[in-house]
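General statements about sequence and structure are easier to judge against a single worked case. For one protein, we set the task of working out the structure tokens from the amino acid sequence alone. The sequence in question and its structure tokens are set out directly beneath this paragraph.
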Amino acid sequence: MKPGRMWLFIAIWLLIKTDFLPANPLLDPGFGNDVKPQQGEQEPPFDMGILLKAADQGTAEAQLALAAMYFLGKGVPQDYTEAAKWLRKAADQGLAEAQCNLGLMYQDGKGVPQDFAEAVKWYRKAADQGFEKAQVSLGYIYQAGTDVPQDIAEAANWFRKAADQGDPDAQILLAGMYVAGNGVPQDYGEALKWFREAADQGDTDAQIGLAEMYAAGKGVPQNYVEALKWFREAANQGNAEAQCALGFIYQDGKGVPQNYAEAVKWFREAADQGYAEAQVTLAFMYHDGKGVSRDLAESARWYHRAADQGSIQAQYDLAVMYKNGQGVNQDQAEAVKWFRKAADSDLVQAQSDLAEMYAGGKGVPQDYAEAAKWIRKAADQGDAHAQYNLGIIYFSGTGVQQDNNEGAKWLRKAAEHGDNQAIIDLAARYSEGMGTPQDYVQAYMWLLLSADTPRKAAVERLNKLNKLAKNMTPQQLTEAQRLAREWESELWKTFHSIRRDQKPKELPKN
């Protein structure tokens, strides 16, 4: 075989090896760098003329290889227009790989004007020949409704065709559709099957999906040991999400003995890769001294790294550390900066704390109107404590126009969300007619609904109930008790589930 001809075949082989395909649109930057002559062989000189001659003579594979070289800038200056030109020549001859890649060029607008209809046309030509990467790309387009009517069932159909050929991307996408019941009937067994198909090929996303199915007991009996096995498979390949998940398993002792040191090891592996959730959790571990010696400065360092990536939880916790001088020099202005970042992302507790900073003039000039603005943002999200504070703000007219009706409205909202202080205050205001019309029935009802309190407060509560009862008719007492019973069940449920996902606890001050 002539040296130039050998290079033609090497180029074609490299083209296949580097997947010049939509599943990897940036391609492989190492294209052409990993082909070494076997021991004792001399590397043949590259003869571009032979490749060009074969392409000019209509050899579709040569045209495809030449397109790849122009696309990647390997051996020639990078030129997407020239890449698209040679792809079209090969695509017009019916070469599925070229058709698929030409579709990608039109989809991305590289070397040709962006044209989704033209992309769909070429993807379909390749997909109809059974080219799985084109089938996956076509599935994506139907899933997103890009220049075609959105059709989730059609997307699932194309993903299935590629999955049946063993394409791991398609298998994962199809598994996800079965988990969600999106485009196909929900079927955890089918999801498990497709996750396993891709996981057995070493795909880390599939291994994570399979692990999560075992951890949740979806499609299989719950099995943390099996979940651990698959998380570890992905973690050992360097997948940061899996490493972080493995850390949580050791932290919680699910399927393994609880081991904070091992948890820290895996959190650190993921954190060192820049995985923000692992960085936040590692910061927690340093803060509480779990699996490592307690080190607030190290905790703050990891919070900083996650916060800089936009982790809302890290931004909030870092703000608390600056506010209290934990692991960093106390700096109220820096605390305000990080509270604001988290508050701008609608974290309720950050909005409340930012309001507190404005009200107290900490790190910012005192500004009651700004404080009221941020409290309202938290209140509008349903935070009971913020609603209570907003009610008090309106009653007092601090930073807002004084408005008893608005104050009563927000106090009632907080009471209805189970805030005990709001319940007690609302009862007092109805009893005395402070900012609300005097209403003994409402006062008695809300006082009945107030939560258990320490002995002294409980005695005061009983005295207030007795005092109210003396001013009420039997009919009013009966009505108040009836209303309280109607509210009690709903309030009890609310009181024990308030904002578990929204309101993080402030870190201890030491």
